[in-house]
Amino acid sequence: MKGNILLLGLLLASMTIGAQNTEERKIDEVLDGWHLAAANADFEAYFDKMTEDGVFLGTDAMENWQNDEFRTFSKPYFDKGKAWSFTAVQRNIYVDESGTFAWFDELLDTQMKICRGSGVLKKVNGQWKIAHYVLSIAVPNEYVDELVQIKKEKDDQLLLELKKKQ
Fold this sequence. Notes:
It is built from four helices and six strands, in the order ααββαββββα. The chain has helices at about 1-40, 45-50, 65-80, 145-165, and strands spanning about 50-55, 65, 85-95, 100-110, 115-125, 125-135. Strands 2-1-6-5-4-3 form a six-stranded mixed beta sheet.
């Protein structure tokens, strides 16, 4: 009897891990397909992988693109046949217990060298969609002081403008 209970417990745990791995593979496919669609300048495939209210935060402090704005901004790049090319070289995926939300972080090989992407996906009609994506340029710690000096003047101006709006 104890052996059967143990076996049942192991079977249930295995099924849960298997389901989790399946969802992670599906999310991997969505993210890889999304990056590939940009590299191939496939506008429809790219935006089909985002939710209708999806958000893209770019590397510039003022790049907080809501879906419609991001489509408008991106369209000329896609129309020229060259958007951007990001390839994940490392990725971590986490799925909530309900299996309807996931979050991730990834290191990317890009034209800007190593960047970090992170975000949230949600299931929409049984399909994983990107709801929120954040792109950051990865800066080695030993170069932070130099980078701060490069962007200091522009950031100081922007901070003044933003604080006036509060």
